[in-house]
Structures
1.
Amino acid sequence: MQTSIAGDSPLFSPVTLAGWTAPHRVVMAPMTRARSMQPGDVPNALNARYYAQRASAALIVTEATQISPQGKGYSFTPGIHSAEQVAGWRGVVEAVHAAGGHIFLQLWHVGRMSHPDFHQGALPVAPSAVPFQGQIWKVDPATGAGAMVDCPTPRALTLAEIQAVIDDYRRAAKNAMAAGFDGVEIHGANGYLVDQFLRTSSNLRQDDYGGSRDNRLRFLKEVVTAVAAEAGAERTAIRLAPFLTARGMDCPDILPTILDAARFLQAQGIAYLHLVEADWDDAPQFSEDFRREVRARFQRPIIVAGNYDLARAEWVLRQGYADLVAFGRPFVANPDLPRRLAERLPLATLDPATLFGGGERGYADYPALAAG
Ligand SMILES: Cc1cc2nc3c(=O)[nH]c(=O)nc-3n(C[C@H](O)[C@H](O)[C@H](O)COP(=O)(O)O)c2cc1C
């Protein structure tokens, strides 16, 4: 990378994260691409090539990866609960490491954002039996065509089942570390299971896991503790989406809840806190007051994501509101995104038709720019 061209950009200054020092602060955001091998949701050589092409990121966060069969909610997404999946991920990690990169696995349980077709006809599970407004992507086994489909009302997890899910997180973290990952990021954002526990809109429980702020935070805290016991706190991270309102997640108490979470996460000494701002077209406003409130409680590395470009990334770093910036869609069509940003080179645009499912096309065939 031509640091002389990047000049004094805060995006192109070194940063220490989870025990290594990256030369810049451009992170690849987690992105579901629905291309794991079937049957079995197993990562493969094509996935390894795709991630290795993007190894110049300061950190790659993988696509969301189900911790258990119950945690699945979309077709062709990978898992980290079978021996084949662990072996497949080992191939991905080795390819990224060989290319000089670092990679965290994103741990995923979708909760209610799922469909009985993934569970032999059984209902998806959630904190409470509350449906959400939204759809998941599912392939019709009869036609092989993928489409967004509605989800039924889920059933509420029992207390014993909650403990079993926490244990699934722990086992998934253990598997991820066995596959060689540099760490794990718990998917606590975007309306999935951890998020469903946090919010009054999706959590109507009246036991220890619902009601008060402390009770709604209990699941997150227990998952973080269980994962950190396997991976080490300094290799454990979490992604949260404070301003999300879509997917039935509009909760009047979510900001103070997340600020309490930030204080807990600081005390745990986790690797980083990953904040989702605008996600697609939802939650465009992320107030500066809130950024300051988060920073007051969490001084360890913060990653932010959501519609960032070079100028906004430099602004958020200069303000001290974040330490690294994750880019999602720009990384799809620009495998060498850090270099292009550093040298102010043109960015390619992605083909939306090839985001989910399929093979190499629109996935591992976007070229890096020739060395200039
Ligand atoms: C194709 C696609 C798949 C995504 N899948 C995930 C995912 O698996 N986990 C997650 O936390 N966010 C996911 N996201 C959200 C991105 O990580 C990111 O927050 C979002 O795209 C906004 O950043 P951007 O404007 O730089 O793309 C996905 C986004 C895209 C475009």
2.
Amino acid sequence: MIGCPACGEATRDRRRWSGLSFYECEFCRVLFVHPQPGGEELAAAYRSCYYPADPTAGAVYRTTPPALGERLLSCLIRHRIVPAGGGRLLDFGCGVGDFARTAMAAGIEVDAIETDDLARDAAARRGVRAWRTLDELERARGSGAYDVVTLLDVLEHVREPLRLLQILRRVLRPTGALYLSAPNYQSVQARLLGARWDQATNPTHLFLFSPRSMRHLLMAAGFRMAWLSCALRDPTVGTPQGLLSVLLQHLRLSATLRVVARPV
Ligand SMILES: [Zn+2]
């Protein structure tokens, strides 16, 4: 039996896709890597997949493109998740700071956290107030400082998602909201591609979520959640695919789960 790192329940040795080292928790249904790679192995994976030391080498996986970040911010403002006219936002896992800069340009006061040294330095050079750890941030800002915390495709990367969400709940104002996106292993893409799905083969992904496992995790961390009702699409994608994307969002079969969670 293996302890599920997301919910703590013991689960039997079950692989979801042959050849991949994900186990499925029989209780909360999250998929998780076991054992998790060590720090050096993970750092090397980030170098090759996201932040190559030689910028001309090109990354294997792209982070949230700026145009998508702008649409996301408009959606968050329209749904009053980000207060109109400003507010304070924490972008956890800011990468090189694209979304943080979009929010700053809209008049929002932004702090960011990025554990990868190379990415954080790049974000700081671009004017983003980027911290290394939540501990450092909390010492400087205290508890209950933020109207919004964003986790854009981050939760699948962290070692202890439940613990992270519990801490983020603390840094939020009681009336604040958490917005997060994460890959959906019950999506059409995942079902069709199986072990060839790029989200499953990404060596920096330690967890994969389904609608059920996401809801379970957020409830355990002290949040009530709702699916974000405006389906976002990449502006480079044409209308027919855009409509399909909206439909898949409503059926919870989309590649990305989009969630708004508020402290209970
Ligand atoms: Zn579990």
